Amino acid sequence: MSKVFTITWLRSRRLLVSAVALLGLAALVFALQPASPASSAPDAASSRAQMMEEGWQANVVFEVHPTFIRYPEDRIRDHGVWFVGAGLAPEQEVEIRMVWGSVGLHNDITSVLDVGYDEDLGGLFANEHGAFVVAFERGFRGTGSDFVFYGEWEAVSFRLLDAITGEVLAVAPAVLCGPALEEPWCNVSSELVPIE
Questions:
Q1: Alpha carbon of residue 64 to chain centroid
Q2: Secondary structure (3-state) at 182
Q3: Does residue 13 fall inside a structural domain?
Q4: Structural domain boundaries enclosing 179
Q5: Considering only Cβ atoms within 10 Å of each terminal Cβ, which end of the chain, N or C, has fewer?
Q6: Residue range 98-154, pLDDT digits in tens
Q7: Which tens digit of pLDDT belongs to each residue from 99-111?
Q8: Is residue 81 part of a domain?
Q9: Calpha distance 114→134 (Å, rounded)
């Protein structure tokens, strides 16, 4: 075998091995690619919008402040509790009901809410961000003339409902401490907070 022939044969062999290696590498890269093309993947803005939309449907938050309430012996004007909520649809109308007593009495307190209640529209509505804050002052008239709690010195719940469907969206607990201050939870109870 001549020297020129051997060099030519080795070069062609090297080219063949290199071509096979490149084809193998291309097949491996193709096999590791995702099943769907990148063009069908959602962009970051639509993913964020979808997450926000799913968030308001699934995560309604509803709180009462203070949660442990020291009930007044006598009426304290312009003091009460604050309700705050978020995660609602923008401008969604809601109601707040209180449930108390061993028989689970319901009392719709929406119409007697103070700051935050829309008297022109006649209801309680979330703002454009799906949030609201409203004050409740009229239920704390002192033990002699209270018309809401009827001496229930225990845990009660406030329910946030959709005003149209009546669906319960969220529940906020509250604990009432009676004026005798004998209940075990009274050591953490707070006075009614200023409303106006």
A1: 14
A2: coil
A3: yes
A4: 60-194
A5: N
A6: 887 767 778 888 877 877 767 777 788 999 999 999 998 876 766 555 555 656 678
A7: 877 677 788 888 7
A8: yes
A9: 7
